[in-house]
Amino acid sequence: MGEVMLPKGGAMPEQSLIIDDARHWPVRFRKNKIIFHVGEFGDTVYKINKGCVRLQVNGVGGSRQIVAFLFPGELFGCLPGVRSTAAEAVTIVDAEAYSISSLIELNEKKHGVAEPLIDAESDLEASLAQLVANIVHLPALGRLLWFCRWLYCKVRERDISGFIEFPMSHRDIGDYLGLNAETVSRGLKELENGGLITRRGRQAFILGGAPIRDCASTGGATRTTKRLSVVSET
Amino acid sequence: MGEVMLPKGGAMPEQSLIIDDARHWPVRFRKNKIIFHVGEFGDTVYKINKGCVRLQVNGVGGSRQIVAFLFPGELFGCLPGVRSTAAEAVTIVDAEAYSISSLIELNEKKHGVAEPLIDAESDLEASLAQLVANIVHLPALGRLLWFCRWLYCKVRERDISGFIEFPMSHRDIGDYLGLNAETVSRGLKELENGGLITRRGRQAFILGGAPIRDCASTGGATRTTKRLSVVSET
DNA sequence: CGCTATGTTGACTAACATCAATCGTCGTGG
DNA sequence: CCACGACGATTGATGTTAGTCAACATAGCG
């Protein structure tokens, strides 16, 4: 109780290999390309090889709510039927596409095919629920810190000094966390001032010097650690 | 674009009858009884016959985030494996429990068994995404009006004058909409003053005199209809 | 009949959205 | 190679909304 669940770090492509016996083909999407719309009928499952995908819905007044960012090794579009969210490429995306009919066929011959798909949807629901909880109960700084820690677990590509890079814009981050781009900018600056993250250039950062789980106990950030500290009680 | 999706009104028990060939048994939960916890392994699907169930996660600092309210005819716990949310009975609940292994078995003999389950999860994801979007982009009054309209579609039990009753407390509503109980109370009062809803006694209400789709154009509420009007452009 | 949970109302405050202006970077085309 | 334009990031000033704290009312339940 009271802890914030971080997704299991890193992609697990080995688990998804079971489905590779089904018919599949490579696809590539350019930046900001719409992969599928909300409400359209879908019979294709995707597995990301490279890049970052966002799932989103169109909110009121043309606003956009991003509900998930997906990274290599992850599956999306696993439930056949009407798409409950839209999918767009944040960066250039290389993915494998699987036809659902082929997966169903395969599932009848071999058990365990459906499991990665079910797990993917289960994870999506869990992370969505956590997202709502965090948006509602954490202040802007807390949400940003949570996002940075989450991203740090997800993104495996690091440069020589351990920096990772934001694949998405501040506006994307804001549309995910329920903030606007200005607040994202201010918040990241404040986290940097508090020693919780370090930035270099435009969009590279690592979590502050200490190990991840201690990040809230480092730094003398005064008011920042008030409700922020709750986030790191893993 | 820009519209708020309301869930398809009313329960559709006839669709779920396909799964009734699987092994199932009646269960009853008392008010506030925990049906399953988040993170525990689940091999049971439930179909509500009577009452109201909430799905929720425990947020930071002991706070609670409700992610869905479910009503008669609806299924929950459809994905086998680890529960991504907890489930609790809002009222006394009568439900049917189905063992997943029995459903899987049945699915191999007869097609279409999995569809109601998949649809249930698809609906859950869609409504969760809409919930996030509405929490982020609508002010308190807008969220409450959206909730009332949604409830009015869902709850089929009405008394002679068309009133329906809130099954859940103001705190529950607040934990769903990202508001606190005080704001819920104030907001409902303001909606009533604006003629958008009518209350009688503690928790009964109907949507204001006009047909539902015109509810935002009725009433002279001045500032209320500013961003509220967007909600009703169906 | 009292206790507890829930709902209501008021005053105050802080956090974040909004608007606006500026800067930096990248990509394109002359 | 440089000029231009577009997009994203940054910074500042200001206002509104809803959270918080507190007190009280009411209903439900034993």
Tell me which oligomeric state these chains represent.
homodimer
- The secondary-structure element order of chain A is EEEEEEEEEEHHHEHHEEH
How much beta of chain A, percentage-wise? 15-25%
Helix content of chain A: 25-40%
The helix count of chain A comes to 6
* Rg of chain A, Cα atoms, Å: 18 Å
Mind describing the biggest β-sheet of chain A?
A: 4 strands, antiparallel
Report the strand count of chain A: 13
Helix/strand-derived category of chain A reads alpha+beta
* Most extensive interface between two protein chains, with residue counts: A-B, 46 and 45 residues
State the distance separating the first and last CA atoms of chain A: 10 Å
Describe it for me?
- Two copies of one chain form a homodimer.
- The first copy, chain A, has 234 residues and is an alpha+beta fold.
- Chain A is 32% helix and 24% strand.
- Chain A has six helices and 13 strands.
- The first copy, chain A, has helices spanning 100-109, 114-137, 140-154, 170-177, 181-193, 225-228, and strands spanning 24-29, 34-36, 41-42, 44-50, 53-58, 64-70, 75-76, 81-82, 86-89, 93-99, 164-165, 197-200, 204-207.
- In chain A, strands 1-10-4-7 form a four-stranded antiparallel sheet. Chain A has a four-stranded antiparallel sheet with strand order 2-9-5-6.
- In chain A, a hairpin with a 5-residue loop joins strand 5 (53-58) and strand 6 (64-70).
- In chain A, helix 3 (140-154) packs across helix 5 and helix 4 (170-177) packs across helix 5 (181-193).
- Chain A is globular, with a radius of gyration of 18 Å.
- The termini of chain A are close together.
- At the A-B interface, strand 5, strand 8 and helix 2 of A face strand 5, strand 8 and helix 2 of B.
- Chain A binds a DNA duplex (30 and 30 nucleotides) through residues 139-140, 169-171, 179-186, 189, 202.
